[in-house]
Amino acid sequence: MAYKFIDNYREQGARKRLVEVLRKKGIEDERVLKAIGKIPRHFFFDETFWNQAYKDIAFPIGAGQTISQPYTVAYQTELLHINKGDKVLEIGTGCGYQTCVLMELGANVVTIERQETLYERTIQVLPYMGYKPQFFLGDGSIGKAEHAPYDKIIVTAGAPTVPETLLKQLNIGGILVIPVGDEQFQKMVTVLKTGEHDYERHELDTFRFVPLVGDRAW
Ligand code: SAM
Question: Exactly one of 68, 76, 77, 111 is catalytic; which is it?
Fold first, then answer.
């Protein structure tokens, strides 16, 4: 497949306006806003739909999945409090847009996707754009024990519960951000690991994600 990577004034202008929309909706972390202002989100869309790329909406990416709404990407990223050099496990690579945002903040990302068509596309597109996470194809609901522990874990699909396996793979002081609920609506949940078996859990706003499908999920 031939990809088209052109970033002209129209897209750059639309990106600036998107950043202002996110700021108005409550995103405060300037580093997150800067990353969103930098990454050409239209590169993840077919050219026919470039006019949709800088709207604050989720959009189909094939295989019955979606690129998350920019607000959701910014919201989850802000909650992770990424420090440069953090080792981050991302479950649900999708098209890889969220991966790029994490990497712009200086994270070293291990990312897992279960849909082969999305995985195959992402392992080509992201390196072409200059982002080189560690990509894996498989069930991320069990995490990736070989590369654990992680400073941060982000799940970009809706889970029925917080998988215990993911908590085990977090460093003490680490943060997990995961949408938890039913197949329709989920609350964003953050879990801070305060000791080997101690956690602080917070439930935040309601979102709508595609389901996390796997051994420790739906
Ligand atoms: N992060 C993406 C972005 O930047 O917009 C959006 C991800 S999409 C909302 C959720 C993704 O999670 C889908 O691509 C889906 O195939 C994937 N997924 C669902 N269950 C999974 C699992 N158990 N392991 C890995 N990926 C999974």
Answer: 68
